[in-house]
Design goal:
By secondary structure, the protein is of the alpha/beta class. 32% of the residues lie in helices and 21% in strands. α1 packs across α2, α10 packs across α12 and α11 packs across α12.
């Protein structure tokens, strides 16, 4: 099937955000499959990432203002994704390569290879390449801190498995901050954190004091906001705060009812606390060493990425909202290949291939029916989803229509 006849979809920015993020700030729409030129390749996205940091790209005044251009409404959401190269005019990428890059919330993307990484087989399944994104951020941050010295205590807010696994593997002690008892137990029992304080508990500060008798040597901050100020009394003398994210401030635009700066400055002056920001962007040279370290941790079972998989492009807008309004354990990714009717579509494809269903008749009913039909029992919307899914199956050579 020619790619220019394929149905494709994407999630675009409907409008710049005002106040808290809402699902209808995004628009899910049909689009054409992009075409390749010399030096580019076409990727069929398999999984797309849902990250708090996307929040800073879709406002009228992005983080950094002049250093980050405003993203116009109508632009595809620029998330990280993993996918398969299905067409190439690039000398370094061949059909069948599994790649990770900022391919966006869409079925297909064209890339010139900038910022793209081949997915090593050692970190299979493929969605681990997105689960490893927080891990790569953790790796870059720990390198920025000068590595982890044996006996050091690393404090982590918005606690994630990747940070803890890397710290433990390097001989450090790791203390986490999480919201809720379920997350606290998960980080201790499954990830191996030495201690975790529940920020929703009335005993939060008592838990921190017990977990940090000598203070934290490095604070890996994914949250910032009032929490950063609250944690300053628990920092050791000469310690380091690594700013990895500002999740508490993404929704508010940095505005807080309380001035948190004095508490932070007191710690800077009184304890010699240093504050440093960092980012994984521009650090591709460090990725091979990171992948080697993570592959070893995966093989040994010391790192078990918690991947929370949702289905389809349609689920992405609400999933982004839920990052701020609900608590989800693990890295959130969306499975894009089949969308919400994966099993049905695959079953339809198999029946078409074996000749038990007439493809033209089935798709004609799916496109025109306003109600269910005998074969699918799903109606127009899901019938069209089945068409898209069947086309994906054809591209993957899992089935073909005659």
């Amino acid at each position: 099937m020619a790619l220019d006849n394929m149905l494709a979809r994407r999630v675009a920015l409907r409008r710049h955000l005002e106040g808290n993020l809402r699902a209808d700030d995004f628009l899910v729409e049909d689009c054409s499959v992009p075409t390749t030129d010399d030096g580019t390749f076409l990727v069929r996205n398999l999984f797309a990432s849902v990250d708090p940091m996307l929040r800073i790209f879709i406002v009228s005044k992005p983080l950094g203002n002049a250093t980050m251009p405003v993203m116009p409404p109508g632009t595809s959401i620029p998330s990280a994704a993993v996918g398969e190269v299905i067409e190439t005019r690039h000398p370094d990428y061949k059909v069948g390569d599994l790649v990770e890059g900022r391919f966006g919330w869409q079925n297909y993307a064209v890339s010139n290879g900038q910022g793209v990484n081949l997915v090593p087989s050692a970190i299979a399944p493929i969605e681990n390449a997105l689960g490893g994104l927080p891990g790569f951020t953790a790796y870059v941050g720990l390198e920025a801190a000068g590595g982890v010295k044996p006996g050091q205590t690393i404090l982590v807010s918005g606690a994630a498995g990747a940070v803890g696994a890397l710290v433990k593997a390097r001989g450090g002690r790791v203390v986490g901050i999480a919201g809720g008892e379920d997350k606290r137990r998960y980080l201790i029992d499954e990830v191996g954190y030495d201690a975790v304080a529940d920020r929703k508990s009335p005993n939060f500060h008592a838990q921190l004091a017990a977990a940090l008798p000598d203070g934290a040597h490095v604070y890996f901050d994914n949250v910032s906001g009032p929490l950063l100020a609250d944690l300053m009394p628990y920092m050791a003398f000469g310690s380091l705060v690594l700013i990895s994210g500002l999740m508490a401030q993404y929704q508010t635009g940095g505005v807080s009812e309380k001035d948190n700066l004095p508490a932070v400055l007191h710690a800077v002056m009184g304890k010699g606390v240093r504050i440093q920001s960092f980012s994984q962007f521009g650090k591709d040279a460090e990725r091979p060493a990171f992948e080697q370290e993570v592959a070893a941790l995966l093989a040994s079972g010391d790192f078990k990425p918690e991947i929370h998989v949702i289905e389809g492009l349609d689920s992405l807008p609400q999933a982004q909202v839920d990052l701020f309004e609900n608590s989800t354990t693990g890295k959130v990714v969306s499975h894009l290949v089949f969308g919400k009717d994966a099993r049905l579509a695959l079953d339809v494809a198999k029946r078409i291939k074996t000749g038990t269903v007439n493809v033209n008749a089935f798709f004609s009913r799916a496109r025109s029916s306003s109600g269910g039909h005998k074969m699918s029992g799903i109606g127009r919307e899901r019938g069209v989803e089945g068409i898209r899914a069947f086309q994906e199956i054809q591209v993957m050579n899992l089935g073909s229509a005659s």
